[in-house]
Amino acid sequence: MKKLMTLLAVCGSITAIAQETDVNVDVNMGGMGIDMNVNINETYTETYTTTTTTTTTSGGGGVDHYVMPGYSGPIGCPWPMDEGQFSNAQRSVSSKDFEDSKLTVAKQITGANCLTADQVRRIMNEFDFEDSKLEYAKFAYNKTYDIGNYYMLNDAFDFESSIDELNDYINGY
Q1: To pair with 16 at 20 to 30 A between CA atoms, which of 32, 49, 56, 104?
Q2: Distance of alpha carbon 105 from alpha carbon 115, whole angstroms
């Protein structure tokens, strides 16, 4: 939620006046014995006004991402799935009979959402094979909110080599 913090309006006016004065007209009609002299003194005034309004808006102070209690590390995505949504997603993965189908559904869910490291670990536990767990952990890294907690996934692996491979992947990311 972003909050509007500052609204600044500046208004100003510029007025200019142009004047033109003293117009003289002389008319002489020769041959008729009539001399005519006309003097016209007139003042002409034109006024125009230009008004400029500048509005500056700045946002700040609002939070544009989820704040996990007790976590202050780096974040990979802004809004992780809430537990209700995640429970439905996890059930969808676990309902599949084949490992490839589980991995496909897990990637679909993760590709469209943001998860916590704990949620990623819980989905990894739905897989039977180490290769599937590792592939999913790599896929989910950039869709994880609390990437500073990604070490929690290590408990889901059966082999140290998988932990090392995931660590190499993260360090190269």
Answers
A1: 56
A2: 14
Task: Please state, in angstroms and rounded to a whole number, the distance separating the CA atoms of residues 145 and 79.
Answer: 7
3-41 tens-digit pLDDT: 334 333 444 545 545 555 555 555 555 566 666 555 555
Q: One-letter amino acid identity for 121?
A: R
Q: Tell me the per-residue pLDDT of 69-81, one tens digit each, with 9 for 90 and over.
A: 999 999 999 999 9
**What confidence score (pLDDT) does residue 112 get?**
98
DSSP secondary structure letters along 18-87: EEE--EEEEEEETTTTEEEEEEE---EEEEEEEEEEEEEEEE-S---S---TT--S--SSS-PPPHHHHH
Phi–psi pair at 145, nearest 5 degrees: -65, -60
Q: Token pair for residue 68? A: 């996990």
Task: Give φ, ψ of 75 to 5 degrees.
Answer: -120, 145
